Amino acid sequence: MSISVVLYEDRQELRDSLSQLIGGTDGFELVGAFPNCNTVEKDMEELNPDVILMDIDMPGVSGLEGLKIIRKTNSDVSILMLTVFDDNKNILEAIKAGANGYLLKKIPPAKLLEAIIDAHNGGAPMTPGIARQVLQIIATPKPNNNFNLSEREKEVLTYLVNGYSY
Length: 166
Description:
Elements: E1 3-8, H1 12-23, E2 28-34, H2 40-47, E3 51-54, H3 63-73, E4 78-83, H4 88-97, E5 101-104, H5 109-120, H6 128-139, H7 151-161
Parallel strand pairs: 1-2, 1-3, 3-4, 4-5
Helix pairs in contact: 3-4
């Protein structure tokens, strides 16, 4: 049984080459390739893919918005972000919105196919550099501004900040 894949990528040449890779590989079936997520709800109803490869920055409805739209009605489909963005903001936003994996476009074709299989089997594939960033984000302690001060302690601290010595 083939893994059905839908691709959202705005760059025509990359969309064409990924379409050939996926559609021409045994065990995969490309059921749709689109330049943006403008019709994502209709696409999901009609195509019902196993895995979605989605760029982030596309004209019209972006990949992050498309991801959020899909997750409102479908929590089963595996969605892999396939992008050039390796910044913490996009990574976290995609993961929080329900992405199953995050891959950079420079991933070799064989690794991309492995990632699709991994996602289809319940995994969470990430490009190694992205996985490292995610681990660093999780390991970095968040500042805690709640020091459990009493009202009187807060009042005294306010006076000290305003230049009073006692």
